[in-house]
Specification:
Elements lengths: L3 H13 L7 E2 L5 E6 L6 E5 L2 E7 L1 E6 L2 E6 L2 E5 L3 E9 L6 E7 L2 H7 L16 E5 L2 H13 L3 H21 L4 H7 L4 H14 L7 H7 L4 H12 L3 H20 L3 H7 L5 H12 L3 H6 L10
Antiparallel strand pairs: 1-2, 2-9, 3-8, 4-7, 4-9, 5-6, 5-8, 7-10
Helix pairs in contact: 3-4, 5-6, 7-8
């Protein structure tokens, strides 16, 4: 059960930082708060490994052809970096969407994995995003972690201990299975993370599925099957998603031309780029380019 006091504390914290509708840093490194007073349209982004706790309202994520709903009281775990579309589905000024999230620290998780048990080695590759009802112990640990953010001295002394507790409870949770698998050396989830890292490190270059499979130590057919199970997409589509996300950032934040952005992110044809960009974001790249605000020259 999520306490009304915790919800109120998070809402007030975000409002005081003037960060409504944005991911808000807290006084604890790796802990973030989010508050939105209205539902939102779909936003394309790339999820990094994290644990989220939905305090109020609801949200949904689309990963490939999978739709993941996470309502109030749900705990959300993301084990691998995956491109998604997300939107807030339940929110109002009176009862905003409110959530806490921590960036998963693999070094902390790795130090705890031996305590979880060898039976977990039998778990199979599944979707990289999973949800479950947040258990009382995990919710309590997240609440204590957030409250430490109000006191810098206490945060410095105690946050590392509570953060370790959060990771421990996450690893023991049923929906932490893919994170557990990720930490097991040479598990399919661990091998797939190596292939994902290769794609992300050089998303502009053409990729060979056979070479990615070899890097993961799998046959091409097994690699393709496991990759689809984990990401709900194919390696080539995964690369395309990364290219388009970076293209949008370049258009909206740096104001580069559509043609130059197309080539910058690895497309050989600006026409093909514009077609795929429009299909993904429902607006042509030229429109997003036009939204770029040229910085004011304060020196005249």
């Amino acid at each position: 059960m999520i306490s009304k006091g915790l919800i109120s504390d998070v809402v007030n914290y975000v409002r005081n930082t003037d960060q409504l509708d944005f991911t808000c840093e807290t006084g604890v490194d790796g802990l973030y708060a989010f508050c939105s007073e209205q539902t939102t349209e779909f936003e394309a982004t790339c999820y990094e490994p994290f644990l989220g706790l939905i305090l109020q309202g609801a949200k949904e994520a689309h990963l490939g052809d999978q739709v993941i709903h996470y309502p109030a009281g749900a705990s959300l775990v993301v084990s691998h970096a995956v491109p998604v579309k997300i939107r807030v589905t339940v929110a109002s000024p009176k009862e905003p969407y409110v959530a806490l999230a921590i960036r998963v620290d693999l070094s902390i998780a790795r130090s705890l994995i031996d305590l979880v048990g060898s039976a977990l080695r039998t778990e199979r590759v599944s979707l990289s995003i999973s949800t479950a009802e947040g258990d009382a112990a995990l919710t309590d640990a997240m609440a204590r972690l957030f409250r430490l953010s109000h006191n810098p001295v206490e945060a410095q002394a105690l946050a590392p201990l509570v953060m370790k507790e959060v990771h421990f409870r996450l690893l023991r949770a049923q929906h932490g299975s893919m994170l557990r698998q990720l930490l097991l050396h040479e598990s399919p989830a661990n091998r797939l993370s190596k292939a994902i890292s290769i794609i992300r490190s050089d998303y502009k270059a053409p990729i060979s599925v056979a070479e990615l499979a070899a890097a993961a130590g799998m046959s091409p057919s097994t690699f393709h099957e496991h990759f689809k199970s984990l990401t709900s997409t194919t390696p080539l589509q995964y690369q395309k998603e990364l290219r388009l996300l970076e293209a949008r950032r370049l258009l909206m934040n740096e104001g580069n031309s559509v043609a130059s952005v197309a080539y910058d992110v690895g497309y050989e044809s600006p026409t093909q780029f514009s077609r795929e960009y429009t299909r993904k974001f429902s607006v042509p790249p030229s429109k997003d380019r036009d939204s770029y605000a040229v910085p004011t020259n304060l020196n005249g």
